[in-house]
Amino acid sequence: MADLERQLKLELEEKMRRAKKECKYNPTRFNQMLTAYGAAETAKRLIANARRTGTVSEGFTTLYLCGRLDLTVEDSVCKNEYRSLFSPDEIAYCEELLSSR
Questions:
Q1: Contact indicator for 88, 68 with CB cutoff of 8 Å
Q2: 20 to 30 A from 65, CA-CA: which of 1, 26, 48, 58?
Q3: CB-based contacts of 55, cutoff 8 Å, min separation 6
Q4: CA angle 32, 91, 7 (to 5 degrees)
Q5: 8 Å CB contact between 76 and 59
Q6: Are 53 and 65 in contact (CB under 8 A)?
Q7: How does DSSP classify residue 81?
Q8: CA distances from 55 to 3, 49, 51, 83, 86 (A)
Q9: Which residue from 34, 90, 93, 100 is spatially nearest to 69, judged by alpha carbons?
Q10: 17 alpha-carbon distance from chain centroid
Q11: What is the tally of helices (H) and strands (E) in the chain?
Q12: Residue 24 gets which letter from DSSP?
């Protein structure tokens, strides 16, 4: 599981670099969370907050407006290789969010 978590973290870090370069978005708070909590826990916290408040993260909105939902955490959560890190409810929420945009 540690290898999978590390793989997810590397993917999310690459997505951050691309978001900064391609969308002029520097996800400072997300980067802080990634360092503090790790990849899966950061994703879980963002998902839980969005579900609780009914509002997606600033990062999701920014990447949506840039036409780059492929750079979102939600996109990574839905990938087959990472599904074992998340609950079926978390995955379903992300799939619904991505498909409704």
A1: no
A2: 48
A3: none
A4: 50
A5: no
A6: no
A7: G
A8: 31, 8, 7, 23, 20
A9: 100
A10: 14
A11: 6, 0
A12: -
Q: What is the pTM of this model?
A: 0.93
pLDDT tens-digit readout, 7-64: 999 999 999 999 999 999 999 999 999 999 999 999 999 999 999 999 999 999 999 9
Look up tokens 């979102």; give the residue.
72
Structure tokens at 57: 């993260």
With a CB cutoff of 8 Å and minimum separation 6, the contacts of 19 are 25, 26, 27, 59, 62, 63, 66, 68, 71
Helix (H, G, I), strand (E, B) or coil at 67: coil
- Distances in Å between the Cα of 90 and the Cα atoms of 28, 49, 70 are 24, 11, 17
The first and second tokens of residue 13, run together, are 């870090």
- Integer Cα distance of 64 and 39 in angstroms: 21
- Cα(92)–Cα(97) distance, integer angstroms: 8
How far apart are alpha carbons 91 and 6 in whole angstroms? 19
